[in-house]
Amino acid sequence: MAQEYEQYIFRNIKLAVGFIVIVIIVASGTMIFKSIPAGHVGVATFFGKVQEDTYAEGLHFPVNPLYKWTVYDARQKTHIEKATMPSQDQLTTNIDVSVQFRVNKDMAASILQDTGSAEQSVQVHLIPKLRSLLREQGKTVKRAEDFFLEETQHLLQDSLTMGLKDFLHMKGLTVERVLIRDIRLPAFILKAIEAKKEREQEVEKQKAELERFKTEQEQLLVQAEATRLAAEEEAKQIELLADARAYEIKKINEAMASNPAYIQLQALKALQSISKDPAAKIYFLNSDSPMPLPLMHMGDNVTK
Fold first, then answer.
1. CA–CA separation, 161 vs 178, rounded Å?
2. Architecture (CATH level 2) of domain 77-185
3. CA count, 13 A, side-chain hemisphere, 105
4. Which of 41, 95, 230, 280 would bridge 105 by S-S if both were Cys, CB 3.0 to 4.6 A apart?
5. What's residue 117's pLDDT?
6. Cross-sheet strand order for the sheet of 173-184
């Protein structure tokens, strides 16, 4: 009888367990398979124990209906951080940076085991390390205004990217890139930079004005030189004409001194002119003089 009773009890226990399993399966029908969305990875826990195998995107069947699931979004994410960076001149600059990162699918189980969700991993690992690196890198900049230099920004971005990559790699986060979004210097430095720019612009304006004046003066010099050359050429022509006229007069005088007939010829020409123009005047020349001189209006005094 005791043996039959034990068999009865054992059979009822099996029926109860089977019934419980059936109830669980029926109550959570989809729990016998698991669908992971695109770009995600699933991690299962069984009564609090993290399962080593991760589940990639897609449908998985069959799965333990008693699994509890944590799904990680493995697509690229961006974290924006607003921080202050002290430079060597003891001034503080406000800076905004963005960190492009993603969850490492192969380490999703480790993330859940060591930290928790992806959001917790960002809060525990990424943000504190990023702020620490920002403070450290800021101390390498000599002056606050140097943050505006393109070379300084490239160095900061590269240093922050490498520092985060090395640290977060073992934490299950893959850093793609750190980018500087905005830099805000102290107000008095901005005013000083603006004043400096205005002075530089004024200097450039003065340089341009000086260059324009220099060009104009060079043009005037060229024009003056051209005028001088033209005047010299004209003077030369006048001098040549004067020399020619003097030579002509000299020859006439020589002809008159050596050839009395020349005077008679000129007298005949004068008489010819009188016959054509009653207003013409008669001039008398002394042919005996070695240098004949004109005797104008001889007889005017006699008339008087």
1. 5
2. 2-Layer Sandwich (3.30)
3. 14
4. 41
5. 94
6. 77-86, 92-103, 173-184
Residues 244-271 have a mean pLDDT of 72
| Mean confidence (pLDDT) of the chain | 82
Coil, strand or helix at 84: strand
Q: Which residues have a Cβ under 8 Å from the Cβ of 20 and sit 6 or more positions away?
A: none
Helix axes 127-138, 150-168, angle to 10 degrees: 140
- C-alpha dist (Å) from residue 181 to 80, 85, 87, 178, 184: 9, 14, 18, 9, 10
pLDDT value for 90: 86
Mapped onto helix, strand or coil, the DSSP state of residue 33 is coil
pLDDT in tens, 289-300: 544 444 444 444
In tens, the pLDDT along 46-58 reads 999 999 999 999 9
Instruction: For residue 184, give the 3-state DSSP assignment.
Output: strand
With a CB cutoff of 8 Å and minimum separation 6, the contacts of 111 are: 72, 103, 117, 118, 121, 171, 172
Backbone torsions φ then ψ of 57, nearest 5 degrees: -60, 145
Within the chain, residue ranges assigned H as helices are 2-27, 108-114, 118-121, 127-138, 150-168, 187-258, 260-276, 300-303
- Which H, E and C letters describe 40-63, residue by residue? EEEEEEECCEEEEEEECCEEECCC
CA 146 to chain centre: 17
Instruction: Give SS3 for 96.
Output: strand
The residue type at 238: I
CA 40 to CA 34: how far, in whole Å?
A: 13
